Amino acid sequence: MTTTANEKENTAPQLVRYLSIIECPFWTDRQKNKQSEEQMETILQNWLRIVNIKQGWIYDLDKIVTKYAKHFQLLKVLRGHQSEIRKVRISPDGRKVLSASHDGTIRLWDIVSGVQIQIFEGHSDWVLVAEFSPYGDIIASGSSDKTIRLWDVKTGKELMILRGHLYPVWCVNFSPDGNNI
Q1: Closest C-alpha to 5, from 47, 53, 66
Q2: Repeat WD: residue ranges (predicted)?
Q3: β-sheet bridge partners, residue 9
């Protein structure tokens, strides 16, 4: 399969449109303007060119992106947060969605029905990250309030607060066995 010149020419604009639709976490309303879309398109065009030149085995990456990006569709909108959403994660069993927001909450949703199952409240500032444990029974969240909090998925209760960070907590991860964070 070969990529036509027209397909290659349209790849970056398609990616920009897609990224605009999904609203990347760092792309706020204030930054959404024609100039930032043009900058993103320039970056993507350059990146696609570099990948095509330096990585011969991915010579048709732009064709792959063009082929599959046009088939993405909106399946559901989950409403509830009062501010920007920083992180979204799917549970290990694939049945729940977790969202962390600048409104200071973490929300748990049923992936099929879209119904909100639980709200986890306790952080005093933006929630920047939330992750499921490997077994999906515990959630760890990090915040601008400089804490990590552990939550019981079933009850919604806060299990523990880990203090001591000097700066906002941007990232949390569980070890593969779930025993360490």
Answers
A1: 66
A2: 78-119, 120-161
A3: none
Residue 141 pairs in a beta bridge with 130, 149
pLDDT band at 15 (very low <50, low <70, confident <90, very high): low
Q: In which band, very low, low, confident or very high, does the pLDDT at 5 lie, cut at 50, 70 and 90?
A: very low
> Hey, is 76 helix, strand or coil?
coil
> Which tokens belong to 58?
């991915």
Q: Residue 150: which residues within 8 A CB-CB, separation 6 or more?
A: 138, 139, 140, 158, 159, 160, 162, 181
d(CA 37, CA 125): 30
- What torsion, rounded to 10 degrees, do the Cα atoms 142, 170, 72, 35 define? 140
Query: What is the model's pLDDT at position 115?
Result: 94
What does each C-alpha distance from 147 to 39, 84, 125, 141 come to in angstroms? 35, 19, 10, 8
Strands, DSSP E only, in the chain?
Answer: 85-90, 96-101, 105-110, 116-121, 127-132, 138-143, 148-152, 158-162
- In the chain, the percentage of residues whose pLDDT exceeds 90 is 55
Which domains occur in the chain, in start order? Answer: 5-69 (no CATH), 85-162 (2.40.10.480)
